[in-house]
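Methods — Computational structure assignment.
A single polypeptide chain was analysed. Its primary sequence is given first, followed by the predicted tertiary structure written as structure tokens.
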Amino acid sequence: MAAAPGLSSPLGATLRDGGVNFSLYAKDATRVELCLFDSATAAEPAQVLVLEGERHRTYHYWHCFVPGLAAGQVYGYRIHGPWDPAQGLRFDPSNLLLDPYGLAMAIPPGYRRDPQQPSAVAMRSVVVDPNAYDWEGDQPLRRPSRDTVIYELHVRGFTADPSSGVAPDKAGTYAGLIEKIPYLQALGITAVELLPVFQFDPLDAPAGLPNYWGYQPISFFVPHHGYSHRADPMGPLDDFRDLVKALHRAGLEVILDVVFNHTAEGGADGPTFCYRGIANGDYYLLANDRSQYADYTGCFNTLNANHPVVRRLIRHSLRYWVEHMHVDGFRFDLASVLSRDEQGEPSPLPPILWDIDTDPVLAGTKLIAEAWDAAGLYQVGSFVADNWQEWNGRFRDDVRHFLKGDGGMVPKVTQRLMGSPDIYGYENRAPEASVNFITCHDGFTLADLVAYNGKHNGANGENNNDGSDDNASWNCGVEGPTVDPDVLALRLRQRRNFLALLLLSSGTPMLGMGDEIGRTQQGNNNAYCQDNALSWMDWGLVDAETDLRRFVAQLIAYRMRRDVVIDHDESTLNQLLKQAQVVWHGVELNHPDWSDASRSFALTFTSVGGRFRLHLMANAWWQPLTFAVPEPGDGYGPWQCWIDTALPSPQDCLAWDAEAPFAASRCDLVSRSIQVLRTERTV
């Protein structure tokens, strides 16, 4: 089979009339071989096409057109060039390499994580027709952030446990998640944030353990094979698109947790799957010793995100997931890495972030930054670009410290409740710039946050040295499981307190998988390598924790009321807070206590437009406190009890229109509890 010269654009494998055009960027290569396989499992290529420099090369691009090929064709590259690690050159034609722009992959049964990837065991790319799917009119939902509630989940972990009731062949897959959409709808969340679904290396973990979370990407285009219930290379594409379509039909957006800061190729002694064997010094930030890699990620390498070639790769990947996979948004892992230049220094105008921010295809797509990296660059409140939201790590930390009972936290936690204007109150930041969360995949679950003072990561095989030691957790008097009714009652009250502050605060709230039903990881705060019941959703808790689940659903229903969610497209956070009326109190009216000794506060909040008024009282002290209660005000009805985290269900959170009159001038709050009164305008 002869190869015509073909075209240098577009990159990747593109179906054209009568065949496939291949294009690859490989600047310093001296020879490129296109290897064509008869099947996904064939040990060796059926044909090797040599791309000649003059005929098949334009500048740094190697290309050809092969007639007679179609979707499903399995292929890979062998690339010749200098082996000179001291100069950052790592060409080795014994490795079969993936196409950086490949849209599907075939993984042979013998794959292993070795430095060498010969043809028999190497992953291969597969030609895809991205338009060969019936979306049945589906489009990204484009739900405004102001009425978004995010639920972070792990595709496999959500249904892998037998308690899910999902058939074994679909448990832990995209198809299994589809079966649980009614549960998500009933909870009231509006978006799922999926832990990484880019194809990742499950073997990139300590010996004998898997990489469960998925933060070790191999491809930026291919959906992960391990989450498909089909064995063929096209299965993951169709399964993922089926999931997106089903979620959209249920009114739920899809946000992907994406990893553009490093790859699974690891450090200098890691395997060569793709990038380092094609253009090592372009794809990665190299150390001063160019045989080594700069590591700002904690994963032994760092993508050179602001190199023009890598910028294009990232932008094309995001466009692909929006245009062809219909996702609604992205959460960028260690996003501050993307602001580093080729010397590793933070850039005031990082090109890749502005590329993403201004890309017309991505306009309207949710962009969420984890605004820090593993090398100490912390940009919460200062992340560069206009249209990004940020995981607010300070919200998590300050709320945890306040409810733990630490001193000096009242001034901070009240800022978090208002949308963090001390962080996001500068010009043009939207009220939803802050993505508020108490827990996420990384750290304690909510149940563990109130049950453990320290981490218990022995199962990870690192002598409990992994994971953070700074958790701001409190076990409520007993470390771990207990049958003490007083401790259990306090833990439940604390969980309600956390959820109330999360879902009543301005910003965009995010819940962690299973926090609404008390999912535990037995004190493990770094379960990245635990693909077992420790990390999986225990669906037996759904019936056992109906009261807490009801509490969460009621608070979410409140957030979605149209008199709460104000249409404020043009309002900044500061402008919105000026329109609302907020009066701060302590235990006495109009006398807030901002001192280090204070563990309590109260506020009276009048909604924009004045339709309703709330009075919130929070006691994080270890003794009961009595709070003065203001008059409802002219034109408002009597106070109604709405939330009391110290009461059993359903009194802990009543329906908004429930009749629960409160006429006293003072209110007794038990230790470590929150109460909220409500009233509505009558004239």
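Note: The longest strand covers residues 612-619.
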